[in-house]
UniProtKB/TrEMBL annotation:
SUPFAM superfamilies given in the database record: Thermostable phytase (3-phytase)
Entry protein name: Alkaline phosphatase PhoX
InterPro entries found in the cross-reference section: PhoX, TAT_signal
Pfam families: PhoX
Positions in coiled-coil regions: none
Highest taxon of source: Bacteria
PROSITE patterns: TAT
Organism (species): Streptomyces fragilis
Length: 457
């Protein structure tokens, strides 16, 4: 870019946040956002403190609490589980909206996902998904029930073009470890129209590792997968070539090939710090043992040249003709080649090219975002929405196509003490099919919000 780093930061209104955006930022956005009206440097304006101490939003926006951990599920199956994480919003019949919500529960969770016959994989595990059905995009909850149970540490996932949710286990514990009765570390498919049609079947060919998120190429049916490994050696970026690429409920069970990304001369993503840096000739190497029977997939032998690694590979989505994924942070003290506070990468399959699009700087001030991006999604109004999962106060913030950064929401719930305050991370940001409502979770205490207001565009 021709502008200096300081000019870019000043233009974005994020000098204190330290967020750098490359000139390729417009390519982050799909055609659905092409006609959106531009936002100002301040986005929707400053956040207004919530008198109820739940969620701070800009003036003119309002929220409703759709669900909160510990409350009773409408189905009568038990209480709402804790640790609300990744989520999607899918259209239902007669204008209804389905929210499929992950619960990142380990065996120690106080509020696990209730076991339900026909929907439970491993009764010893407490993770899974719940399904909220709304009577409209901004409407009331008409049903809330278990969609899948007996899975472990369901962190994120991704929607499919055929209207289901792929929920990912962020663990690689095997049967007998951590108290589990079955192996874990899989992806499961959830059908919001009828969860019993999808059941609780692990998609074993898609790999057994510390899954985070997935994104599906809607044309070729290829599924891209991130691995959230925060201990060296770090995780890989994968693609799954399905045997049945036409894509429909259950088609991923037919199997396929799992491959890991190799970028020539780039073994560690963390060492790249210039937005716009691009690497061609990306290769894909077959994973020798996707089930990781003896050796974790990231530690297997990939031959001469190895594979490319990144610390904390998290959010993932498909936009336009490319897939985007997040490295939440990198720390040399933990084994990375360089330090950073968050990256967004774009992989263009047609060109076989990987490009660093956004680099995030530290955001330690409670008023400023920018520390450890996690879940991401495209807003119909023309912004990239990013959930923050770092230190200090936690935000949802937006990045416009002009590279401007603004705060959209702040978690006002102190889960620590007055002397040592803590705020739970945001997760699962998603928009209603009509673009008029933003849904987002607070991880702790587990809360699901619907946010409406004057969305531009």
């Amino acid at each position: 870019m021709s502008a200096t780093r300081r000019q870019m930061l000043a233009r974005s209104g994020a000098l204190g946040a330290g967020i750098v955006v490359s000139g390729a930022v417009t390519e982050l956005f799909s055609a659905s956002a092409a006609s959106a009206l531009p936002l100002t440097e301040n986005g929707y304006g400053p956040l207004v403190p919530d008198p109820h101490g739940l969620l701070d939003l800009p003036k003119g926006f309002r929220y409703r609490v759709l669900s909160r951990e510990g409350d009773a599920l409408r189905s009568g199956e038990g209480p709402v589980p804790s640790h609300c994480d990744g989520m999607t919003a899918l259209p239902g019949r007669r204008g209804r909206v389905h929210l499929v919500r992950n619960h990142e529960n380990r065996v120690t969770a106080a509020l696990g996902v209730p076991t339900v016959e026909g929907l439970t994989y491993d009764p010893a595990a407490k993770g899974g998904c719940t399904l909220l059905t709304l009577d409209g995009p901004g409407g009331a909850v008409v049903d809330e029930r278990v969609a899948i149970a007996g899975t472990a540490v369901n962190c994120s996932g991704g929607p499919t073009p055929w209207g289901t949710w792929l929920t990912c286990e962020e663990t690689e514990d095997k049967a007998g470890g951590a108290g589990y009765a079955k192996d874990h570390g899989f992806i499961f498919e959830v059908d919001p129209a009828d969860p019993r049609r999808s059941g609780a079947v692990p998609l074993t060919a898609m790999g057994r590792f510390q899954h985070e998120a997935v994104a599906v190429d809607p044309v070729h049916g290829i599924v891209y997968e991130t691995e959230d490994a925060f201990v060296a050696p770090f995780g890989l970026f994968y693609r799954f070539l399905p045997r049945r690429p036409e894509g429909r409920l259950g088609s991923l069970r037919a199997g396929g090939r799992l491959q890991a990304m190799r970028v020539p001369d780039l073994p560690d993503l963390s060492v790249v710090d210039e937005p716009g840096a691009s690497f061609g000739g990306v290769q894909w190497v077959d994973v020798p043992d996707p089930l990781a029977a003896q050796t974790p997939t990231r530690l297997q032998d990939y031959g001469r040249g190895g594979v490319t690694r990144g610390q904390k590979l998290e959010g993932c989505y498909w936009g336009g003709r490319s897939v985007y994924f997040v490295s939440s942070y990198a720390r040399t003290g933990e084994g990375s080649g360089a330090d950073h506070h968050g990256q967004v990468w774009r992989y263009d399959p047609g060109a076989r090219r990987l490009t660093l699009v956004i680099v995030f700087g530290p955001g330690s001030d409670v008023q400023l975002p920018g520390d450890s991006p996690d879940n991401i999604c495209l807003a119909p109004g023309g912004s990239l929405m990013v959930c923050e999962d770092g230190s200090g106060a936690q935000h949802v913030f937006g990045v416009t196509r002009r590279g401007e950064v603004y705060t959209m929401a702040r978690n006002a719930q102190n889960i620590g003490t007055e002397e040592a305050p803590e705020w739970g991370e945001f997760a699962g940001v998603a928009f209603s099919p009509d673009g008029g409502t933003m849904y987002v979770n607070c991880y702790d205490p587990g809360t699901t919000f619907a946010v409406t207001g004057p969305w531009r565009g």
